[in-house]
UniProtKB/TrEMBL annotation:
Annotated Pfam families: Glyco_hydro_2_C, Glyco_hydro_2_N
Keyword annotations of the record: Hydrolase
PANTHER family per record: BETA-GALACTOSIDASE, HYDROLASE
Protein name in UniProt: Glycoside hydrolase family 2
Top-level taxonomic group: Bacteria
Family classification: Belongs to the glycosyl hydrolase 2 family.
Species, as recorded: Ramlibacter pinisoli
């Protein structure tokens, strides 16, 4: 397993990965309340792979509500603080160290931590225990694509319980930087820089920040810490001429990252330091186009579920995350729509470094209750806070296809929920567009997203062609049988994008006894699959109404066999042929790009 430091934008040298073997047991009857209640550990599990996954060593996809983890760690008390961090635990977690409760967290996709400094035994041998509760039938918690039936069906996949991202220990000073946040402002060639200080109170604190691009020093500033924080804009020297400016701007075609070294000082003594990075990148909506760095930019996205056959929601390792970014780019896409998943920060790191745009989408709950909305608000707020500084993220999507709010046309409270999440997201991040509800029944939104799986290209031309007035599209045409905008929210000139289409199912090889495949459309052989993709992309690319598109989907995911790649990430047709259709729609020539 290759697991790199899990927080790439606040990376310290002193850390210990706790992935690997842990003791494990199910607790279906909820018999245990504390670690000392457990008399026998029935399994060994490989963290961070969930117990439903083969790679965990368990591979049990039955219904289980509660499970327990435990492992011994070697860490001696010292002058520093010791932090125990969890990337993600689905859904509700309680953590004990040496029998003492140290953390409680709810939310299956966001990180949490505990300061365990005062719980450490002098001997250096410590025991960490975690209880995870994840009711498989509970539909009021954000669960994304996790099926509530025993066997995955239609577009729903196996459940994920418990730990599914990296667990690690980290030593930090008694007074330390807890958070860093970057906000680019391309118009003024500025970088917003925020840090928050935690730990023991200390006087005469300052933060020193150094920004560089390769060997080129861009800024070295020092700011006084006031009331535990620093919040400043760093103004870079503006080259003026576009050619020189473009060298410092981040885009998929030129993913320029600015390296940062941050040091916390007490007087002239360095008491904390870490590495980070940021980028100069702007994204906004201007009339009917998305603008990247002040220029119209056509989005070529692919929908990515973020599942792997043997590890489910958890990535097999850092190399697998990097490979997924590389494959999306190799197929000609400049971005992905991460569907119903808050992705591992290491994926976002590779998207930042290699140049791939990301739409981040909140995993849905499927019942509309006050509890569901409170849970969504809390977890969505944590997700935005975690991922705000990644330049690859250009759009936030709180709701998809009215999931969890199925009566938007009739129920006032559900409309308010979508509008509230839109405005909350815009409040937490004013720098990115927000799609309130992607697919149909739009109200408050910066982009009109349409989901249409009709594979007949003539129907697509008739529905969205230049001769079709936009008002007719919104008033009379109903892709998926749903209205595109709610009453009181007419199209105001926002960009229109086809954010789900295609879904061509094709499986070249199936094993005896394999589950019946599912897809929106069907191809019988490789050549038919390739031609359907080429025809669809040719039609969509030349439909002027659309300022971007998102093809379904990146890779086969369990029974849903409509990926451009097989589940193991091997291509169904040559990558060069996919790329030619995705980018230029010209006839593919074997061996040519």
């Amino acid at each position: 397993m290759d697991f790199a430091y899990p927080r790439p934008q606040l990376q310290r040298a002193q850390w210990t990965c706790l992935n690997g073997p842990w003791r494990f047991c199910w607790d279906d009857d909820e018999t245990y309340r504390r670690p000392e209640d457990i008399s026998r550990w029935t399994h060994q599990i490989t963290v961070p792979f969930p117990p439903e996954a083969k790679a965990s060593g368990i591979g049990d996809q039955g219904f289980h509500k509660v499970c327990w983890y435990q492992r011994d760690i070697d860490v001696k008390p010292g002058k520093d603080r010791v932090m125990l961090r969890f990337g993600a635990v689905d859904y509700a977690a309680r953590v004990w160290v040496n029998g003492r409760l140290c953390a409680i967290h709810e939310g299956g996709h966001t990180p949490f931590f505990a300061d365990i400094t005062d719980m450490l035994e002098p001997s250096g041998r410590q025991v960490v225990t975690l209880r995870a509760e994840d009711d498989p039938h509970e539909l009021t918690k954000p669960r994304g694509k996790q099926d509530w039936q025993l066997e995955p069906h239609s577009i729903w996949y196996p459940r994920t319980t418990g730990i599914w991202q990296t667990v690690w220990l980290e030593r930090v000073p008694r007074t330390y930087v807890d958070k860093v946040r970057w906000t680019p402002r391309v118009e003024g060639f500025q970088i917003g820089f925020e840090v928050r200080i935690q730990g023991d109170p200390a006087d005469d604190l300052a933060v020193e920040i150094q920004l560089s691009h390769g060997e080129r020093l861009l800024a070295r500033d020092r700011y006084q810490v006031v009331e535990g924080e620093v919040d400043r804009f760093i103004v870079l020297s503006d080259p003026g001429i576009d050619d020189f400016r473009n060298e410092l701007l981040w885009s998929p075609e030129r993913p320029t990252l600015l390296d940062a070294r941050v040091r916390l000082l007490r007087g002239n003594e360095v008491i904390d330091e870490f590495s980070s990075y940021t980028a100069l990148r702007s994204v906004h909506i201007l009339r009917d186009r998305l603008m990247l760095n002040g220029r119209p930019y056509v989005l070529r996205l692919v929908l990515d579920q973020g599942y792997w056959p043997d590890t489910l929601l958890a990535a097999p390792g850092d190399d697998a995350l990097r490979r997924d970014v590389e494959l999306a780019k190799a197929m000609g896409f400049n971005g992905v729509r991460k569907h119903q998943k808050i992705e591992d920060p290491r994926y976002l790191y590779w998207a930042d470094r290699l140049g791939l745009l990301v739409w981040e989408e909140m995993p849905s709950a499927y019942r509309f209750t006050r509890t569901a909305i409170r849970r969504i608000v809390r977890e969505w707020t944590e997700a935005i806070d975690r991922d705000y500084s990644h330049p690859c993220i250009i759009t936030w999507v709180p709701f998809n296809e009215s999931w969890g709010v199925p009566e938007l046309t009739a129920v006032r409270e559900q409309r308010h929920a979508v509008e509230a999440l839109y405005h909350l997201t815009k409040t937490l991040d004013v720098t990115r567009p927000v799609i309130g509800n992607d697919g149909w029944e739009s109200s408050a939104t910066d982009i009109i997203g349409i989901h249409d799986y009709d594979a007949n290209t003539e129907h697509i031309r008739q529905r969205y062609g230049a001769e079709i007035p936009p008002e007719q599209l919104f008033d009379r045409r109903r892709p998926g049988g749903r209205v595109l905008t709610l009453d009181g929210y007419p199209h105001r000139g926002q960009p229109i994008m086809l954010t789900e289409f295609g879904g061509i199912a094709f499986q070249a090889h199936s094993e005896p006894g394999a589950r019946k495949i599912w897809g929106y459309n069907r191809a019988e052989n490789e050549e038919e699959f390739a031609q359907l993709y080429e025809q669809l992309l040719d039609t969509i690319i030349h439909t002027a109404l659309f300022s971007g598109f998102c093809y379904t989907q990146f890779a086969d995911t369990y029974q849903e066999a409509n990926g451009l790649l097989n589940a193991d990430r091997t291509p169904k047709i040559p990558l060069e042929r996919i790329r030619a259709a995705t980018t230029t729609s010209r006839t593919w020539i074997p061996g040519a790009l």
